[in-house]
Amino acid sequence: MKKLLYIFLPIYILPFIAFAQEILNLEDAVAIALKQNYDIRLVSNDVAIAKNNANLANAGMLPSVTGDASASAATQNTTQTLLSGETRSLKGARNTSMAYGANLDWTVFDGFQMFARYDQLKELQKLGDANLKQAILSTVFNVVSEYFNLVQQKQQLTALRTALDLSKYRLEMAENRYQIGRASKLEVLASKVDLNTDTTNLMRQNVLFSNTKIRLNEILARDVNTLFDVTDSISIEDNLKYDNLLNLALQHNPALQAALINRRIAQLELKEVKGQRYPTIDINSAYTRTRTTAELGFATKNQGNGFSYGVSASMNIFNGFLQKRNERNAALAIENASINLEKTNQALLSQLSSAYQTYLVNLELVDREQGNQMVAKQNMDITLEKYRLGSITPLEFREAQRNYVDASVRFSNAQYEAKMAEIGLKQIAGSLTLN
Asked: Keywords on this record (predicted)?
């Protein structure tokens, strides 16, 4: 009785240990990652910087106003000879000067370069949004991948625990038979070896399960030792259509959107370079107050205030053919951006087509492996009953046991691979849902 309690007690304890940990569902895991993941936070700050930069002042459209103030003083020994021949001298004569005012400078025309720069800044903001979306998709993919990896491993743990329970039962049966003389010592030793093997496999799987939890905690940017449990099933969306995915990808794929934005930025760069052929017109204005004092001279005090204004224009007439060179380089940059757009589009079509074929194959494999597992389970049940009756050998029992574990592992692997193919397609399409 004590041996039976020792064998079967873990079967009843393990579920309570699992339920003692918090169940982390997929939606909560993704929500935590979107809030705390380091990559998303870094890219979000870059987006905020790009948004702050996209303003009229940064493009050079607004005037600049500065306030200036200056003051100086001097002490001198001075001798003055007037026209009348009179001479006046003063030791330690003190002179002071003070000026303050406001200045306005405004470039009112620069060949439309300021408008091109402003459009560039807005496109850079859009590029930041595309990069943020890419970071979010990548993070969500990693979270979903690791989460269902844990589910897969949990399913395999269940299969390995079942195998361990069967090995314990087999050892118990072998020892009982040995005691009544119906089995040899060799059968008992073989049962112990198989039990040790199953125990080792379960321990290794537990370590892998724990390490995967640590990786998921790292992605969620929380304490890597946070304890949690996951659900025990994988739901697969089996009705994805290639044409729908293609339309979504052409509209929402962040890599393709970034390539389009980069081409637009290159076009605006050429527009800005061509603007350097036109004159630049600046206006300026200032209001100044001045005050000077002198202890020796015709005027001992002088004060003034007033406005000043003016217009200036400049135009590049010749700069050593640099203008033509800059325009050619800008045109080549547009060509490169267009080539990169075509390359990205081609890679997108290739990835989507390949991923969709993998998705279809994995769906078929899930059905096949599910059938194999059911057959292996039935075979295991029949073999267990025959072994209990003593009508089959321990070797046949062990073979059925291994077949059941292998079939369970293949089925969980097939589910995981199909789920990865599903979310991979959604990531390419730029709309990664959690269905």
From this structure: Cell outer membrane, Membrane, Transmembrane, Transmembrane beta strand, Transport
Tokens of 411: 């089925």
List of domains in the chain:
2-36+112-278+321-429 (1.20.1600.10)
Interval 227-272: pLDDT, tens: 999 998 899 999 999 999 999 999 999 999 999 999 999 999 999 9
Residue 164: name the closest of 122, 221, 125, 206 by CA. 206
Q: Looking at 87-146, which runs of residues are DSSP E strands?
A: 87-109
- Write the pLDDT tens digit of every residue in 96-146: 889 999 999 999 999 999 999 999 999 999 999 999 999 999 999 999 999
**Distance of alpha carbon 136 from alpha carbon 365, whole angstroms:** 30
Coil, strand or helix at 365? helix
Cα distances (angstroms) measured from residue 161 to each of 7, 379, 400: 12, 18, 15
Residues 6+ apart with CB under 8 A from 29: 143, 147, 216, 220
- C-alpha dihedral (134, 140, 145, 146), degrees to nearest 10: 120
